[in-house]
Amino acid sequence: MLDLGKIQSIAKSYSPQELFAALVWQRRFNEFDGEEVITDLSTHKNLWASFLLTKPIFAPDENGLSFGGMVDTLLAMANYRPMPETSIIHFIAYPADTLYILTENQDTKVSELLDLSKKWRADSVEISDGTNEDYGLRLKRRLRTRLEGGLWGEDVHQDCDAVIVTYWWD
């Protein structure tokens, strides 16, 4: 099932961010166009530090929705088979509908990312700095601590605060 030679070549050639960009590029559903999103992110590299397309993460997760989304992703990846365009059977390559972008906590960058959400036709957009989440106090403190000074600035000795911009497509 896994071609180790191919995996080794890919691992040496691409960063984790490039691998996730390839997954986003493939994804199209409802109003979401992965190729458009990756093209815009590539054009606006100064706006983000990293991104991840996945199933939504809920907190608190009393109904197990985050776990269920992870299971859906694992099942889709396990059952995926490449099919020709003419086939009536098409598998979902990567069943994600939520894009998380890590960025510096700067009004101009966040504002531009919010503008992109309109272009991308996202159904919902949220900005999280760790203080506005519905986590327990201990987890909220830990998340906030991780985001404060979590990014390195131009000068490696200068830390920058981070926020997460979350886009969701229904």
Descriptive notes:
By secondary structure, the protein is α+β, with helices and mostly antiparallel strands. The protein has one domain. 41% of the residues lie in helices and 19% in strands. It has 6 helices and 8 strands. It has helices at 4-13, 16-26, 34-43, 65-79, 107-119, 137-147, and strands at 28-29, 32-33, 50-54, 98-104, 124-128, 151-152, 159-160, 162-168. The strands form 3 sheets. Strands 3-4-8-5 form a 4-stranded antiparallel β-sheet. Strands 1-2 form a two-stranded antiparallel sheet. Strands 6-7 form a two-stranded antiparallel ribbon. Helix 2 crosses helix 3 (34-43). The longest helix has 15 residues, at 65-79. The chain is globular and about 50 Å long. The two termini are 32 Å apart. The mean pLDDT is 79.
Largest sheet geometry: 4 strands, antiparallel
Give the overall shape: globular
Number of strands: 8
Structural class: alpha+beta
Write down the secondary-structure element order.
Answer: HHEEHEHEHEHEEE
Gyration radius, in Å: 18 Å
Count of domain modules: 1
Low-confidence stretches: none
Spatial order of strands in the largest sheet: 3-4-8-5
Sheet-strand content, in percent, reads: 15-25%
Specify the helix fraction band: 40-55%
* N→C terminal distance: 32 Å
Mean pLDDT: 79
* Distinct helical segment count: 6
